[in-house]
User: Which sequence fits this backbone?
């Protein structure tokens, strides 16, 4: 359902999120990102949502949770690769007022 | 022989059934003239309703989630029912950002409302909850 | 809270519901460790069973097709039931190339048998038919 | 569910079949092919199944029906583009004993 892959890039951890982010996959999302932040010893996270095919309010909640956690540690978070498919949900959720949402090219 | 168009799906209250429920209703909805974006909206609305049944309705003990869909005068009608704990104050529950679970966003009902044409919520504490949503394909003329 | 893993789908006997039924069971089966080729086999087997309920079971009057699936000891168990006309001679019906409808191939049961591990057919004339198929992911060790 | 497109090629009508061929789409398949054969005035049919994503016994029956009809008119039929996805069903059905099944490249 959900696949995550990570790479470090100039002090930022880049997490590519593939699949569906909902109540069932949110705990996996949370745990895998925590692990990767610890392992790479960074507090800056880029979420690349290019290959995210579904998200609902449980999924947005999981993203917001990562934001809050990093903010508490004076870290930073960016969201990139927002496709037309998931944009309505992210916009409606108000996430865009907290974290800038950068679009996917040509989507 | 052909009969009227509906579907009934019963699933146990498992988090991994939320995806199955939205896929099924999405596939059912595809026989109406919805755009892909509208089908996505339907999937999100169903995902919210079924998540609520699993997470809230059956927070105390597991049970069955019943998803019904039918076509009525060119509109899709979907209802999601549980026989779980029910909602004390429905008006409060429907307010955006209200949630009885601290880690949750409280946006489920707001999403259901935005992504459907009409939303009704029936609930009785101790009896369960039924959420009913209707949606009409937008580029279609009414009739 | 999590409960046992099953699904029940009820659909009216329409030919366009055959696709919906196989998509749903295919999505349910995906939580077991099946290969894509095995999921395709499951979809074909379900398609055959549901087609038979619609075409044969309810040839006289429409009715409800009930599709149940659950996981039992690592195997998928699917049953498809109708309350239609029933089958007079089950052994004959199961023979490859036997069909009571001239334009049909008579290969439905043969496909269900080839694409599942076990197939059982229960039927009573005037009462209806239930077909039950089981399938275990093949690259998995038993246990 | 099912899409058909046609082109004439050296006395053969080439029908590209896209989507799912089952009890619901078989009547469409039958009617559209009949129409196209009449329109192009040919009795030689190539079915290209490259983009067929699902077939069951009702679908195989519909293909066999076209074969029988053409054979009765002393026409010919070929089946090409058989992918790994649908090959098991076509082989099990015995269609291959009646019409040669030509594979899709690299599938
Ligand atoms: N099926 C249900 N059974 C019991 N309570 C529910 C149900 N659906 C919603 N609720 C209540 O309504 C509140 C608001 O729901 P919602 O807007 O979906 O937000 P969230 O799920 O994020 O809490 C929930 O926190 C819960 O208290
Ligand atoms: N659900 C059913 N209800 C009544 N009769 C059935 C049912 N399923 C199968 N049959 C009978 O069994 C025969 C063989 O079925 P099958 O092998 O699937 O071939 P086909 O569907 O091509 O006829 C059918 O022609 C029909 O007479």
Assistant:
């Amino acid at each position: 359902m959900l696949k995550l892959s990570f790479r470090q890039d100039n002090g930022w951890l880049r997490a590519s999120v593939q699949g569906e982010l909902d109540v069932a996959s949110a705990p996996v999302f949370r745990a895998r990102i925590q692990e990767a932040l610890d392992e790479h010893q960074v507090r800056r996270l880029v979420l690349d949502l290019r290959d995210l095919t579904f998200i609902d309010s449980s999924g947005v909640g999981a993203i917001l949770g990562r934001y809050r956690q990093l903010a508490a540690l004076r870290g930073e978070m960016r969201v990139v690769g927002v496709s037309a498919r998931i944009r309505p949900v992210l916009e409606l959720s108000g996430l865009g007022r907290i974290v800038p949402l950068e679009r996917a090219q040509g989507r | 022989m052909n009969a009227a168009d509906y579907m009934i799906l019963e699933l146990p209250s498992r988090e991994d059934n939320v995806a199955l429920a939205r896929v099924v209703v999405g596939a059912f909805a595809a026989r109406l003239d919805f755009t892909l974006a509208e089908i996505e909206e339907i999937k999100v609305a169903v995902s919210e309703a079924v998540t609520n049944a699993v997470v809230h309705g059956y927070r105390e003990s597991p049970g069955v989630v019943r998803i019904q869909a039918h076509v009525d005068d060119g509109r899709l009608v979907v209802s999601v029912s549980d026989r779980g704990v029910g909602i004390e104050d429905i008006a409060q529950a429907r307010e955006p950002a209200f949630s009885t679970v601290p880690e949750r966003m409280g946006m489920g009902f707001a999403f259901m409302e935005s992504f459907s044409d009409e939303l009704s919520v029936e609930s009785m504490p101790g009896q369960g909850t039924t959420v009913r949503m209707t949606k009409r394909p937008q580029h279609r003329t009414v009739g």
